[in-house]
Fold this sequence. Notes:
Low-confidence stretches: 629-633
Distance between the termini: 39 Å
Number of helices: 21
Shape: globular
Helix content: 25-40%
Number of strands: 18
Structural class: alpha/beta
Strand order of the largest sheet: 3-2-1-8-18-17
Amino acid sequence: MGKMAARPRVLVVGAGLAGTATTIRLLHFARRPLEIVLLERRADYRSAGVAYHRDGNPWDHVFNIQAGRMSVFREDVLDFINWANQEADRRRWPRRWVSWKFTEQGPAPRRIFQDYLDSRLTEAVRESCPGVDLVEADGEALDAQSCERGFAVTVKDLTPHAVDDQVPGPLPDTQTIEADHLVLATGLELKEPPFAAGVTGHPSFVRNPYSAPGIRKLTQLPPDASVAIVGSVLSAYDSAGLLLRNGHAGRIQLISRSGTIFRTYPGTHEHAVLRLPVPATLMEPYHGREEFLARLRAAWQEACTIVRDQHPDIDPVIVSERVAKAWEPYVPEVIDRIPTDDLRRLLDEYATSLASLRVGAVEYTMAIIERAMQPQDGRVELVAGRVQDITPAESGRLRLSIAAQHQRHTVEADLVVSNFGREPDYTRVEQPLWRNLLRKGIAVPHERTGRGVEVDACGTLLSAYGTPAGPVSAVGVPREGDEIVRHGRTGAFAFNLAAIKNHSVSVAAHVVEQLELRQDGLDDLAARHPHYRSYVSNPEEAVREALEESVVLEVRRLATRERGRREALDSRLNARIRSMGGLPVLPAGVPRDERLMRAVVNRVAVERLNDVSVTPRQLRRQLGLENDEHPED
Length: 633
């Protein structure tokens, strides 16, 4: 790799939740001059993405999980709650929310999350080290190719003069930006449902319920109109809830292939992690789909019984969530026994069921829908079956053809709403950047699951040969397949806020580490010694205590948002590392200087911050941060 510029540049593609969270961490972690370019193709998605942007989320759309789990910092559990109660500007909030006291177990409107992320990004810029700057640029990344510096990215409609050295790109209206490291945080990819190919532009069809046009159609619909919502996942509840809160009296049908309805979290629900025995029967050899599913059902019922018997205080509604979380450490080994074709089919067939086991929705969202499903109301009906096609009817309405087990029937509706329809298979993603990355082999579809792309443990994209494709990392949705097979996370938990929190820490730390190693002439260290990060796993007793002290200081530095305190901790850490005089456990030929020690200590600290075997509150206590709001200098 060629010589690095005096001030390296990181280009983050996508400024939604994943890109913003990673940028915040980069601003916190960087100790040397660094330029971070945060690129977003849609201005309204900045600090929001499709899930939180204001135009697609009216005030009645609330987080499906409790507000107390929405902090962008896993080690600072109540940060979002504290911001919402103490810092948020409520002058333009509606009456329902303007005096609302946000609690850990309560709801919160999704649209205010954009303001929260904006606030934390502004804070991170203010508290960054000298020479660490953020450039927020508009534009769409179309292509990327390796260059001496790192990657040269072709951007369409780039903000004029966004960076000092941008040059005309290979296509009209494009510019080229060179970066030392590329971070891909492109978010959810929209999937075009084949059953709706003939009605995409029909005025009675809503393709994206999280868009301004989609919201307008829902809110302006005549109150007695009939509505069919394709899907019964959380986006369907948002649409149905919005209609009901606006006084809709017409029939609403939720059409679900699996017939699944998500559960309502109890009002006192808190996240917790249980320890359950290894499901031994699932570790047996795989003998076919039906035989495996029978073992899975039996093991699941046994685990649920254990939880109910040993933890009678746990609400029956969330037993499945506790079991699903407790099983995550075992899932990778189970998956390893399943042939690839069968694994892909199982993930596709049971996607909604898996999601419903792992996550529910708050009462604010579900109560109004559950009431409307009662016989005495009847406005909402669950229809089990797969939508085969949607066609215009002579009446001007839309006709849905539905296949359910051994029968097929039709439904007519004045308005049809499709769920968001995420595309997990990146060979089918239409975004030009991903098409070009796959064509060039910079990105490779995830082989085992067919979901997302191949990455290593640090989030670095892997080539077809299983080697790093260059200084390019992924955050969030593109890592879905890897999260499934590496960490056992299924459903939305493979790419939701919880996963993104960990991705943002590990990717930002890895990027900063790699840039610093390169500046110090150690950029080939990983190639020469691929296991250098694990050299402290069994240190000699003489350095064990000093290493532990260093890791504790690094954990506190990574978790500290105020620059002055970070710099003080950094100084103490440097002094502690120098006092060790090198690591005796390092093999011959590996430099024993301070820089390598920092890399090793940083990696251990990141692993501790990303420990998902405990809850965020337990993690905070475990890391010594519970009563350490203001680390001493």
